[in-house]
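Example: Glycosyltransferase, family 2.
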Amino acid sequence: MSGIKMNTNKTKVTIVTVTYNAQEYLEQTIKSIIEQDYPNIEYIIIDGASTDKTVDIIKKYEKYITYWISEPDTGIYDAMNKGINVATGEWINFMNAGDSFCENNTILNVIKSLKNDTDLISGDIYYIENDEKTYHKQQLINYPMQNMFCYHQTLFTKTSIMKQIKFSTEFRIAGDYDFVLKCYIKNYKFQYLNFAIANFISGGLAESQNIIARIEDIFIQSKYTQDSSDIFNSYSFTRLNSYNKTNNSLFTRLLNNLYLQCQEYDLDKKKFVLYGYGNIGEIIYNKYENNITHIIDQNHENIIHDKLYGTNLLSSLNFEYILISVLGKEKEIKKYLIKTFNIPESKILTFKI
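Written out as structure tokens, the predicted fold is:
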């Protein structure tokens, strides 16, 4: 590939790579994209202000990249939404650092396979662990309320749909499941391809933080199911129960640990702002409703709550403390709050899990 591929006679495809301190894996992802033989690719990289050599690698391949930026974000879905905002292709795919397309003609084969009424298209993966490569078929869409039913690395979506719906930033891990479930409920047309599209490297967030991933899955299912008791029969709930049994009640201990830290902070004696209104944020709010003055969430427009506001309010808000309830992204959010809103570090409370 010499420069950006822009054959306007072919459907433009946008590929977005989201990165943060990804120097070990980013280059192989970039190469798999710029070596595609499809003639009309827009390539976007959104970096979350990496502190390693990630930006150096991006600059090395800058001539192949349509657009890139390196700045703080509040999580992977915030970064992915930034990619959606600048995307101009008809179709969009997210191929994040470490993952890659299986063949040089993968995008070409995907576009050639599109049916006229397709809105989202996905396929199979090769799962790579310790240099072993295993073929994994996509799960059937027949049971969407069970768990995530497609591999996000293989998913190509009409960009117009993504600009309308976007990813919910209340989730740390399962935002892609929330997105495809919304599309399913809105009756968008899914198409399955019976071949491998992406190489998926093991060890991602959904695996390393599997308990939080399953909790988010269940929370998502609770938003869309007509009968909440169906959740007890879902694959996500079964998996969460299995973690609980095999890890000495790890889920229970996680919640107990959070409550103990809340007690150590004397939250019942403080007035504070809650940052994040996902599943953990709701649990905290239900316990400390009278102590919470405001809730800050980037996804505030999609949630109805009389105390919920966007991050812009922080510029004019006076408060004693702000508690971050987004588990696993505490450092990034803390840095964002300090840099963007000049909030003293002493006012920022976080959990240790």
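Residues 13-206 form a domain with the Spore Coat Polysaccharide Biosynthesis Protein SpsA; Chain A fold (CATH 3.90.550.10).
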